[in-house]
Design brief:
Helix content: 40-55%
Distance between the termini: 45 Å
Number of helices: 10
CATH topology of the largest domain: Nucleotidyltransferase, domain 5
CATH superfamily of the largest domain: Ribonuclease H-like superfamily/Ribonuclease H
Order of helices and strands: EEEHHEHEHHHHHHH
Number of strands: 5
Strand order of the largest sheet: 3-2-1-4-5
Radius of gyration: 19 Å
Length: 229
């Protein structure tokens, strides 16, 4: 199969930890056309330049010893034919692979943001969403969570369920650009997540507070969009 029509991948990383993460495992599944998975998936472990934090080990069960003979993490490079990169909290995964060195420019589609928009009053972890939306699948697969190779398969299943829900609510979405635009909308918060107005509707914030926040240099770009409306 040629790769010229492949524009997207579902990607997941396991990392050294939350702060300045470096990948210890990267997996991705190419999608041919819109939603057709391409086998085999890519899954590779890497040796980071620093020790894996114990909290991270407790999550993915990969130790420094497990990766001591693996290629250095700086070897990872996302294929340059990928236009859209999809994941659950994909910003974190992008941070991790960017630590490997310069990567191709891609558009990010976040299944976590889409879940928060579509199903606001529930837990939004990958496993929780699968238990909510496809109990038989979750029972069979979610005990494997936190292996990058298994997580991308679960994320792909969640993506299928998200697309199904979007189609039921707003009509056809048949390409990644449409899904990307919906993901971008879903990322814009409606509730302020911190500070003295934490939990308040952003549209009801005092104008003076909005102006003050917009003057801060490190405001999240999606929060900035919400404040600027």
């Amino acid at each position: 199969m040629t790769t010229k029509n492949i524009q997207a991948c579902v990607l997941d990383t396991e990392t050294t930890g939350v702060k300045d993460p470096q990948p210890v495992e990267v997996a991705f599944m190419r999608l041919d056309g819109f939603m057709n998975p391409v086998e085999p998936i890519f899954c590779q472990r890497y040796k980071p330049a620093k020790s894996i934090e114990f909290g991270a080990m407790a999550t993915h069960h990969i130790t420094d010893e497990d990766v001591k003979d693996c290629p250095p993490y700086t070897d990872f490079l996302l294929p340059d034919d990928i236009t859209y990169m999809i994941g659950h909290n994909i910003d974190f995964d992008q941070t991790a692979i960017n630590a490997c060195g310069k990567q191709p420019e891609v558009k990010l589609i976040c299944t976590l943001a889409l879940c928060r928009k579509l199903w606001p009053n529930t837990s939004h972890t990958l496993s929780a969403m699968l238990y909510k939306l496809d109990m038989p699948y979750a029972i069979e697969h979610c005990h494997k969570a936190h292996s990058a190779g298994d997580d991308i398969r679960m994320t792909y299943r969640l993506l299928e369920l998200i697309v199904k829900e979007i189609r039921a609510l707003v009509g056809p979405v048949n390409d990644f650009e449409g899904l990307y635009q919906l993901s971008e909308i879903a990322r814009i918060p409606t509730i302020i997540p911190f500070g003295k107005h934490k939990g308040d509707d952003i549209s009801q914030l005092p104008v003076s507070y909005k102006r003050w926040l917009l003057e801060q240099p490190d405001v999240d770009p999606y929060l900035r969009k919400a404040l600027s409306k």
